[in-house]
Amino acid sequence: MAKRYPLERYRNIGIIAHIDAGKTTVSERILFYTGISHKIGEVHEGAATMDWMEQERERGITITSAATTCFWTPARLLYGADDATKAKVRETHEHRINIIDTPGHVDFTAEVERSLRVLDGGVTVFDGVAGVEPQSETVWRQADKYKVPRICFINKLDRMGASFDKSFDSIIERLTPHAVAVQLPIGLEEHFSGVVDVLEKKAYLFSGEHGEIITEAEVPADMVADVEKHRATLVEKIVEKNEALMERYLAGEEVSVDDLRATLRTATIANELIPVFCGSALRNKGTQLMLDGVIDYLPSPLDITDSKPIKGTDPKTGAEIIRTPSDEEPLTALAFKIATDPFVGNLAYFRIYSGVMKKGTYVMNSTKGSQERVGRIVRIHANHREDVEEMSTGDLGAIVGLKATTTGDTLCDPENPIILEKITFPEPVINLKIEPKTKVDQEKLGMALRRLADEDPTFRVTGDSDTGETIIWGMGELHLEILVDRMKREFGVEATIGRPRVSYKETIMGSADAEGKYIRQSGGRGQYGHAKIKIKPLERGKGFSFVNQIKGGVIPQEFINPIEKGIKEALDRGIVAGYPMVDVEVTLYDGSYHEVDSSEAAFKIAGSLALQEAAKAAKPVLLEPIMKMQVTVPQEFFGDVTGDVNSKRGRIEGMNDRGALKVVDAKVPLSEMFGYATKLRSITQGRGSFTMEFDHYEEVPKNVEAQIVEGRK
Ligand code: GDP
What we know:
The chain is an alpha+beta fold. Helix content is 30%, strand content 31%.
């Protein structure tokens, strides 16, 4: 039976960083150190442990797993203690840390959102040479959106040109004025050898083959003044957050490190302060003390219920339900990722917000309204999977072999149903055609697409019934590129891949009234369907709504659904250029029927005809996805870049200076953005960078619409 940890000794965290800042290296080091620290009495196991890391790396490692469990006792509490004492300290201070994988690329908005949803705190990693980069800003803002309490880790201080000060300043300038340095590096680049804990005014030096030995030392003489200066700022910022401390501080009293730490913890959890740590994950320096910071400053599941209450609705009544994080409460869990594992098959990763999940029981998937049997529960560790009998509040794990559950579903106690707030995923805006090479590929493709779509809710697959083609849909060029690559590599599908195309939509700008009649009298039994409808535009994003105003049996009840079906099919086929028509309200208000000749089929056709007539008269237009884009370029390329954006029908919405760089915010139609990465590289000699995400759908200008309609013919 796995050891139970009190909830205050849980940390559910994500390592948040854009690609290349060192997220993988930091995660690996965390798993390495937590692996060795967990084995009581062994300080450094050295080569053996390192070996599995290398092997796992070869095999594509579990760090890519959606949630990995590890254990940590603050290194600070273990310095210099003998083994017996260490064992005792661990009894009372060992924490369970669940590391939730967060993607480094902002193209995968859905991935980012769902992972941010289930974690309680984050470690943001920065490159100590580059400091805050445009992509760091994007991931930072996303974490802001979900109010994720954070600590920062300035990594790579061993690199040539690394600067803690500059990186720290860039955090303050570009991300938040609330960042506070709790550590300072001792030496930089190849001389980087340890850190000073600013609150304690103590130095820590790292040694041993993997930096696992930490030695406490005096602050180096040449740093004393700097440390005092930083400490004064830090203490001031902390005491500001706590009136009682403030009074003692103003009265000239020395506030203890423990009190300061406690207040810094509260302020970090409240998102009012952000402690900054530093190190070099690659050179095995600083990761362990940063982990101490995770324990010291990031919230446990108990801490965050004020800012993020566990809120849901009763699926029957729609009434709001609030749960408290406790094993005594009914089970409330969120399936946040579905993954396919080569060894065990389908894994549904979940987080338990309240209650206990037991193996062999049934849970309710309240989102889908179905029951699921929990056949097997596994906890994922760095180098193995552990089968467990049950999991409790705060835990993250995976259920093997669920059938109907997809990402974002709520799993709960069948006796106490609740639906947690849904994770909303944006609509896919781009698609491409896939043609498998052989019959065998066709089969493999089917399976690959099903699996990939289960894992990723923003990835969709449709078949074009007219042509028998398979079409896949995603969030951006890169998104589809990666999915196609996985399809080929992981599933061995050979296929011809079409060029990515924009997912246009259609809508109406006006209202109209129309009639659909499908009447055939040809001897024997005829056909009779007749419907009158009104249509009007709905707000963008509202989809389709159907209002039935038929009274007195003018059309019998059994023909109403077929009419709606016919209308929906006609909407899906579009009017302008064959794209699905959205954001329309249709009111069925009149019609007639025939005792003998009326049938469901006839009314379906009547509904479809009515819609086509009405839509034609209601100023139908084409809609295109508009992307929000941010481009960062050196000053000298500014004119070329903005000129290019303007020529792409883009709207520039903001221009800012960031040091020597210019930052341009713009809205641009997706159709103009294919291959922009290459274009920007060539305009800026490789020195520009950009991020892009879907913003909204907008009417296509008439001249462009004409071209698109022409192209579809
Ligand atoms: P990720 O893309 O954020 O997961 O970043 P990785 O962990 O893969 O690191 C990107 C690159 O930076 C790799 O080549 C790493 O070896 C390197 N790297 C990571 N941490 C450090 C560090 O502390 N110092 C140095 N010099 N390089 C590092």
